[in-house]
Amino acid sequence: MTTRREFLWRTTAGVLAAASSRVAHAAKAIAGNDRPKVGGAGLVETVLGRLDVSKLGFTLSHEHVCYIPMGLFSDRAAAADRMVEKLKEAKAAGIDTIIDLTTFDAARDVRFGQEVSRRSGIQIVAATGFRFPHESYNDQTVEQIAEVYIREIEQGIEDTGVKAGVIKVASQSGAVLPAEEKGIRAAARASKATGVPIETHTDARHRGGEAQANILEAQGVNPARVSLGHSDDTEDVNYLIGLAKRGYTIGIDHVFYGATKPAKGEPEYVTYLRQVPWQKRAGFVKQLIDAGFGDKIFLSNDWELEREQMNPDGFLFNTRKTIPYLTQLGVSQHQIRAITVENPKRFFGRS
User: Which domains are present in the chain?
Assistant: First the structure.
């Protein structure tokens, strides 16, 4: 059976080529101060329209809703029904908003996101950017790639009218590949031009957040505008504290991996992720708070329908397991609210 990654690598080339042709006429240098910021301070775009950040509420910062694993469902309607069920469950538990970091090269479907948002009552913020940069990034300029991101932020994604409210970038290891670096630099330009923040996929095992931070800072991005995802995929809390000292928000969103058992034939890196216990991952939150960085933490689950067997708690793993454990460690309800409500509100409220 074709894996999701194999499918994505086969289809990304065509998508990128089409996107490049649409913006070739706009391949000019982008200066962050030369164009108006989107929306203004205190506003964020969702799949159902613009929202005041004061209404974000309890926010999961790194999830995947706008993606349909058709190999698991008989049709689109069945996938939507299951996602709505999971979202309603999250809503009933007090979750208000999900930041969806599914990009176009990862089979993003914002119409699906619109449908399940309407039916569930959960607010969803869609992303532009990239997860699996195709080799064609090497043939495009940073300006061309940035223009695609900016168009999805300012004009909307495809013909849906849905505007991206966050920029997603990724690197697969500690060293950033050339195509990844170009995409990250493009994200920096788009963020500076529009005021929209950046969230990333990192390889914390190999201190990948540091390499991303170096590129972003060289492009003049304020670290306060960036969240480094999957930062709990390590056992080195000093690595996390070092990034927080530089001003980055630390994404703790893989805690569930430490509560699952290895599966036959899984990739080596997944086996490694399982080896970092969930209690240790959750404990990073307490250690960051104790080091004075409670305002630099995001908490999420990196969940999608394909991971239901691996993480049946889905969007509620952290509310059911991580947060009660943090309470046992002495983290107050005020501090939990700061992480889940105030930190996202401040992060998305800047322009």
Answer: 4-27+50-349 (3.20.20.140)
